[in-house]
Amino acid sequence: MSARILVVEDDLAIATALEDDLRLEGYDVNVVRDGPSALELASRSDFDLMLLDVMLPGKDGFEVCRELKRRGVGTSILLLTARGNESDKVLGLDLGADDYVTKPYSPKELRARIRVLLRRNARTRPEVSSFGDCEVDFTRGELRRGARAVPVTPLEFKLLTLFVSRPGRVLTRRILIDEAWGRDTVITERVVDNQIANLRKKIEPSPAEPRFLKSVRGIGYRFDLDDVTEE
To answer: What gap in Å lies between CA 214 and CA 134, rounded to an integer?
Structure first.
């Protein structure tokens, strides 16, 4: 699965150039152009990395960084700043940014820094998450139950990955559609419910009385992992 990168840049020309360059590198890219939009999207979607400009309308990059860390959002942040003085760089790192690049930057250097952060993220992620008698092997793209592989479709594995990576968090049907099917997909909520029902049959001890994949009436679903282990 391609790494997901959120570009937060108010300059249209720079944002477009970044988007085009990153897509050519094979990344899944989203672009927003102000601080509040960055906060909203990063808080409800899982991104592997955020390229965050400091000078933004609505909220500056420092405010966005501070608020995301306060909310517990774990997305890595690479600051893009025209401010070259040391105090601004230190402030960004103290607020939780993982790295920074000073404008004007070399596209080659930026790509290298992105690769470093993504490799760092990959090393910190568990290869396997376990709950009940199930194991989700992210490296192999496999679901096992009682040490036996359980056939799952690519869509089912995407949904399972979304839930396992965000235990205890309510995911609306809209979020599930955007992240599993794709943002341009038009389907009914009933399609989502049917996929959840299929997934429950493969992971729940009793699908009619789900222990892990819970419904949240009128909103969506929540994955309760009361005894999860990671390897």
So the answer is: 16
